[in-house]
Amino acid sequence: MSDNAHPRTVADLALEVRSKNAGPFWVTMELFMRDTAGYALVADPGFLDAPLIARLYGVPADAIRIFRIPALNVVKISFPRPVAQGSLRDRDIHAGQHHVPLAMLPLPESH
Question: Does 111 map to a domain?
């Protein structure tokens, strides 16, 4: 992770990036940004959109829901779990590790 003066990833701009269950069939990830500037960058549909999340997580873009909450500097992203929670092929029952690719997402070069 880089210092705050030269952020390189989404995690560098965030207070917290986390993922969790949203019921047995959905995952929700939350980006709690440090300030309005960081929020403006990650909330920008030109940077963070359904096709990007689809590539990161291997889910259909049309199944992804993105909620931008400017009053809280928060972006929430939800998508269907690849397998039902607790099923035989479920490798992360709490969905607690799904946030890592999003947190490590490089920021645009212009930032």
Answer: no
Which helix (H) or strand (E) segment holds residue 55: the answer is helix 50-57
pLDDT score at 24? 81
Contact 107/12 with Cβ under 8 angstroms? yes
**Nearest of 44, 110, 30, 109 to residue 72 by alpha carbon:** 30
We report the CATH number of the domain holding residue 84 as 3.30.70
Q: What is the pTM of this model?
A: 0.84
The owner of tokens 């070069």 is: 109
Q: What is the distance between the alpha carbons of residues 52 and 75, in angstroms, rounded to a whole number?
A: 14
Tell the residue number behind the tokens 């359904």, with chain if given.
50
